Hints:
Layout: H1 4-16, H2 20-34, H3 37-56, H4 62-79, E1 93-98, H5 104-115, E2 121-127, H6 129-138, E3 143-148, H7 151-155, H8 157-166, E4 172-177, H9 178-182, H10 186-189, E5 194-195, H11 202-210
Amino acid sequence: MENMNLLSKKFESALLEINRIKAAEIFNKCFQEKNSFEILENVAIKTLERIGEGWEKGDISLSQVYMSSIICEELIERYMPKLGVKLKDTPKIAIGVLMDQHSLGKRIVYSIIRTGGFEVLDLGQGLSVDDLARKTIDNHVEVLLISTLMLSSAIKVKEVKEKLIAQGATTKIIAGGAPFRLDSNLWKRVGADADGKNASTIIKTIEVLLKGENN
Protein backbone atom coordinates (compact mmCIF):
# COMPACT_ATOMS: atom_id res chain seq x y z
CA MET A 1 0.00 0.00 0.00
CA GLU A 2 1.11 3.55 -0.67
CA ASN A 3 2.12 5.92 2.09
CA MET A 4 -0.89 7.88 3.40
CA ASN A 5 0.89 11.22 2.97
CA LEU A 6 1.54 10.41 -0.68
CA LEU A 7 -2.08 9.35 -1.16
CA SER A 8 -3.22 12.61 0.44
CA LYS A 9 -1.10 14.67 -1.95
CA LYS A 10 -2.44 12.70 -4.92
CA PHE A 11 -5.98 13.23 -3.61
CA GLU A 12 -5.38 16.98 -3.43
CA SER A 13 -4.11 17.02 -7.03
CA ALA A 14 -7.17 15.11 -8.21
CA LEU A 15 -9.49 17.56 -6.45
CA LEU A 16 -7.74 20.58 -7.95
CA GLU A 17 -8.08 18.96 -11.36
CA ILE A 18 -11.81 18.48 -10.58
CA ASN A 19 -11.28 14.82 -11.46
CA ARG A 20 -14.05 12.97 -9.61
CA ILE A 21 -13.04 9.53 -10.89
CA LYS A 22 -9.39 9.89 -9.90
CA ALA A 23 -10.32 11.40 -6.52
CA ALA A 24 -12.68 8.48 -5.85
CA GLU A 25 -9.98 5.94 -6.75
CA ILE A 26 -7.46 7.54 -4.40
CA PHE A 27 -10.06 7.83 -1.63
CA ASN A 28 -10.78 4.13 -2.03
CA LYS A 29 -7.08 3.37 -1.60
CA CYS A 30 -7.16 5.31 1.68
CA PHE A 31 -10.19 3.24 2.68
CA GLN A 32 -8.45 -0.03 1.84
CA GLU A 33 -5.32 1.08 3.69
CA LYS A 34 -6.99 1.89 7.03
CA ASN A 35 -10.68 0.88 6.78
CA SER A 36 -11.44 3.76 9.14
CA PHE A 37 -13.89 6.65 8.82
CA GLU A 38 -11.65 8.77 11.02
CA ILE A 39 -8.81 8.40 8.52
CA LEU A 40 -11.07 9.26 5.58
CA GLU A 41 -12.46 12.26 7.44
CA ASN A 42 -8.96 13.42 8.35
CA VAL A 43 -7.66 13.09 4.79
CA ALA A 44 -10.61 15.05 3.38
CA ILE A 45 -10.56 17.84 5.97
CA LYS A 46 -6.77 18.29 5.95
CA THR A 47 -6.78 18.37 2.16
CA LEU A 48 -9.52 21.00 2.11
CA GLU A 49 -7.56 23.04 4.64
CA ARG A 50 -4.51 23.01 2.35
CA ILE A 51 -6.66 23.97 -0.62
CA GLY A 52 -8.21 26.79 1.41
CA GLU A 53 -4.76 28.07 2.31
CA GLY A 54 -3.86 27.99 -1.37
CA TRP A 55 -6.89 30.11 -2.20
CA GLU A 56 -6.00 32.65 0.47
CA LYS A 57 -2.51 32.95 -1.07
CA GLY A 58 -4.02 33.42 -4.51
CA ASP A 59 -2.68 30.13 -5.90
CA ILE A 60 -6.04 28.37 -6.17
CA SER A 61 -9.32 29.59 -7.65
CA LEU A 62 -12.60 29.84 -5.74
CA SER A 63 -14.16 27.40 -8.21
CA GLN A 64 -11.52 24.82 -7.26
CA VAL A 65 -12.29 25.33 -3.56
CA TYR A 66 -16.00 24.99 -4.28
CA MET A 67 -15.73 21.81 -6.36
CA SER A 68 -13.20 20.24 -3.99
CA SER A 69 -15.58 20.68 -1.06
CA ILE A 70 -18.48 19.22 -3.05
CA ILE A 71 -16.46 16.17 -4.14
CA CYS A 72 -15.23 15.55 -0.58
CA GLU A 73 -18.78 15.75 0.74
CA GLU A 74 -19.97 13.23 -1.85
CA LEU A 75 -17.15 10.80 -1.05
CA ILE A 76 -17.58 10.98 2.71
CA GLU A 77 -21.32 10.32 2.40
CA ARG A 78 -20.59 7.37 0.09
CA TYR A 79 -18.36 5.67 2.66
CA MET A 80 -20.42 6.36 5.77
CA PRO A 81 -22.82 3.43 5.21
CA LYS A 82 -19.90 1.06 4.56
CA LEU A 83 -18.46 1.87 7.96
CA GLY A 84 -21.77 2.11 9.79
CA VAL A 85 -21.26 5.82 10.44
CA LYS A 86 -24.01 8.43 10.60
CA LEU A 87 -23.72 12.19 10.48
CA LYS A 88 -23.51 13.61 14.01
CA ASP A 89 -26.62 15.64 14.84
CA THR A 90 -25.20 17.16 18.01
CA PRO A 91 -24.53 19.95 18.41
CA LYS A 92 -27.41 21.28 16.29
CA ILE A 93 -25.62 23.30 13.59
CA ALA A 94 -27.23 25.64 11.06
CA ILE A 95 -26.01 28.06 8.42
CA GLY A 96 -27.67 31.00 6.70
CA VAL A 97 -26.82 34.05 4.62
CA LEU A 98 -27.79 37.33 6.26
CA MET A 99 -29.51 39.78 3.89
CA ASP A 100 -27.41 38.91 0.84
CA GLN A 101 -28.56 36.52 -1.88
CA HIS A 102 -25.19 34.94 -2.67
CA SER A 103 -24.88 31.29 -1.70
CA LEU A 104 -21.44 30.17 -2.93
CA GLY A 105 -19.66 30.75 0.39
CA LYS A 106 -22.51 29.11 2.30
CA ARG A 107 -22.41 26.05 0.02
CA ILE A 108 -18.66 25.61 0.52
CA VAL A 109 -18.97 25.79 4.32
CA TYR A 110 -22.00 23.48 4.24
CA SER A 111 -20.04 20.83 2.35
CA ILE A 112 -17.00 21.13 4.59
CA ILE A 113 -19.10 20.66 7.74
CA ARG A 114 -20.74 17.57 6.30
CA THR A 115 -17.34 16.29 5.22
CA GLY A 116 -16.35 16.63 8.87
CA GLY A 117 -19.16 14.24 9.82
CA PHE A 118 -21.69 16.78 11.11
CA GLU A 119 -25.29 17.27 10.05
CA VAL A 120 -26.03 20.91 9.22
CA LEU A 121 -29.32 22.70 8.59
CA ASP A 122 -29.37 25.12 5.64
CA LEU A 123 -31.54 28.10 6.60
CA GLY A 124 -31.22 29.71 3.18
CA GLN A 125 -30.06 33.11 1.94
CA GLY A 126 -31.42 36.64 1.76
CA LEU A 127 -32.57 36.30 5.38
CA SER A 128 -33.57 39.34 7.40
CA VAL A 129 -32.41 39.72 10.99
CA ASP A 130 -35.86 38.67 12.23
CA ASP A 131 -36.02 35.66 9.87
CA LEU A 132 -32.61 34.37 10.88
CA ALA A 133 -33.27 34.81 14.60
CA ARG A 134 -36.70 33.14 14.35
CA LYS A 135 -35.43 30.14 12.36
CA THR A 136 -32.54 29.73 14.77
CA ILE A 137 -34.86 29.63 17.78
CA ASP A 138 -37.54 27.49 16.09
CA ASN A 139 -34.95 24.87 15.16
CA HIS A 140 -33.19 24.95 18.54
CA VAL A 141 -29.87 25.73 16.85
CA GLU A 142 -26.83 25.51 19.12
CA VAL A 143 -24.20 26.73 16.65
CA LEU A 144 -25.20 29.26 13.98
CA LEU A 145 -22.93 30.09 11.09
CA ILE A 146 -23.76 33.42 9.48
CA SER A 147 -22.39 34.17 6.03
CA THR A 148 -22.27 37.73 4.70
CA LEU A 149 -21.05 39.43 1.55
CA MET A 150 -21.36 43.14 2.32
CA LEU A 151 -20.20 45.12 5.35
CA SER A 152 -23.74 46.42 5.87
CA SER A 153 -24.89 42.81 6.27
CA ALA A 154 -22.00 41.86 8.52
CA ILE A 155 -22.83 44.65 10.95
CA LYS A 156 -26.36 43.23 11.29
CA VAL A 157 -24.92 40.13 12.98
CA LYS A 158 -24.99 42.17 16.18
CA GLU A 159 -28.78 42.54 15.89
CA VAL A 160 -29.19 38.80 15.37
CA LYS A 161 -27.18 38.14 18.53
CA GLU A 162 -29.24 40.65 20.52
CA LYS A 163 -32.52 39.09 19.39
CA LEU A 164 -31.34 35.61 20.30
CA ILE A 165 -30.27 36.76 23.76
CA ALA A 166 -33.60 38.55 24.25
CA GLN A 167 -35.37 35.25 23.54
CA GLY A 168 -33.18 33.41 26.04
CA ALA A 169 -31.24 31.50 23.38
CA THR A 170 -27.65 30.49 24.13
CA THR A 171 -26.76 29.91 20.47
CA LYS A 172 -23.11 30.37 19.58
CA ILE A 173 -22.52 32.47 16.45
CA ILE A 174 -19.69 32.01 13.97
CA ALA A 175 -19.56 34.90 11.50
CA GLY A 176 -17.82 34.68 8.14
CA GLY A 177 -17.63 36.12 4.66
CA ALA A 178 -15.70 38.84 2.84
CA PRO A 179 -16.07 41.61 5.48
CA PHE A 180 -14.60 39.35 8.14
CA ARG A 181 -11.63 38.45 5.97
CA LEU A 182 -10.91 42.14 5.41
CA ASP A 183 -11.24 43.07 9.10
CA SER A 184 -9.85 40.44 11.49
CA ASN A 185 -11.55 42.00 14.52
CA LEU A 186 -14.98 42.60 13.02
CA TRP A 187 -16.45 39.38 14.43
CA LYS A 188 -15.75 40.63 17.95
CA ARG A 189 -17.35 44.02 17.32
CA VAL A 190 -20.58 42.48 16.04
CA GLY A 191 -20.87 40.15 19.03
CA ALA A 192 -20.08 36.85 17.32
CA ASP A 193 -18.56 34.07 19.39
CA ALA A 194 -16.00 33.05 16.78
CA ASP A 195 -14.44 34.14 13.51
CA GLY A 196 -15.44 32.04 10.50
CA LYS A 197 -13.47 33.84 7.82
CA ASN A 198 -11.57 30.67 6.93
CA ALA A 199 -14.09 28.15 5.61
CA SER A 200 -11.46 25.43 5.33
CA THR A 201 -10.85 25.41 9.11
CA ILE A 202 -14.51 25.70 10.14
CA ILE A 203 -14.60 22.24 11.78
CA LYS A 204 -11.70 23.20 14.03
CA THR A 205 -13.43 26.51 14.83
CA ILE A 206 -16.62 24.69 15.87
CA GLU A 207 -14.71 22.23 18.05
CA VAL A 208 -12.74 24.99 19.76
CA LEU A 209 -15.91 27.01 20.33
CA LEU A 210 -17.73 24.08 21.93
CA LYS A 211 -14.80 23.50 24.27
CA GLY A 212 -15.25 27.04 25.52
CA GLU A 213 -11.86 28.17 24.24
CA ASN A 214 -11.19 31.54 22.64
CA ASN A 215 -11.18 31.58 18.86
